[in-house]
Write a structure and sequence with these properties.
Layout: E1 2-10, H1 15-23, E2 28-29, H2 31-36, H3 41-47, H4 50-58, E3 77-81, E4 84-88, E5 93-97, H5 99-107, E6 115-125, E7 157-161, E8 163-164, E9 169-178, E10 183-191
Antiparallel strand pairs: 1-6, 2-8, 3-7, 4-5, 6-9, 9-10
Length: about 210
């Protein structure tokens, strides 16, 4: 397994909403859980399928065959960005797509807002596909594992499932558009006092 740092960009209505996500200890829930209010283990198993993951990554606003609603309204997955590298064969160069830049793009609602909130977190990523396993995240940015073409591969996506636990979120950053300099600047940081550093994990088990 791999411990992977990620960033989640959210377009929220106020500073208080952004800080409440940290202070409430609830973690970052998927849209499906927020919509239905209560979920059960057997429902989770039914939702975590390769077909639904493909809808989440490549057809986010396509109507769900089961409900007719756009899939993003009730997706069991959570998109994060970890950055990625795109190879431009024609130019014989590699193009780096930074995680924070992608998260800012989504958090500002694709440039329509002048502020957004970024959440820094870590997840455990499986080295192979494991869509049905709730506790590990998928890595669609990895072309060795996800070989089917996707127009969104350069978003550097790591896909979490159902919930990012509170203690895996280091904190929240507010970014605002500086009109004079024409750039986004970090305004403040709201740390999570319950954060557990990923260094706590190790794949080495000591002798008893």
């Amino acid at each position: 397994m791999i411990v992977q740092w990620c960033v989640k960009g959210l377009a929220l209505e106020s500073d208080q909403d952004a800080k409440d996500l940290i202070d409430s200890s609830r973690g970052i829930c998927c849209n499906w859980w927020r919509r239905v209010g209560t979920i059960s283990p057997n429902w989770i198993r039914d939702k975590l399928t390769p077909q639904n993951l493909d809808l989440h990554i490549n057809h986010f606003t396509t109507p769900d065959p089961a409900t007719g609603d756009p899939f993003n309204v009730a997706t069991p997955f959570i998109s994060l960005s970890a950055g990625t590298v795109e190879r431009d064969a024609a130019a014989q160069t590699n193009i780096v797509h930074r995680a924070r830049m992608t998260a800012l793009w989504f958090g500002t609602d694709f440039g329509r807002r002048d502020q957004c909130y970024l959440y820094l977190c870590w997840v455990v990523v499986a080295p192979r596909r494991a869509v049905q396993i709730e506790g590990v995240s998928e890595e669609p940015r990895d072309l060795n594992t996800y070989r089917r073409y996707s127009a969104y591969q350069t978003e550097g996506e790591i896909t979490a499932k159902v919930l990012i636990p509170d203690n895996q979120i280091m904190g929240c950053e507010k970014w605002e558009w500086d009109q004079n300099a024409n750039i986004l600047r970090k305004n403040w940081t709201h740390p999570n006092p319950r954060f557990t550093p990923p260094e706590t994990l190790s794949n080495v088990r000591e002798l008893i």
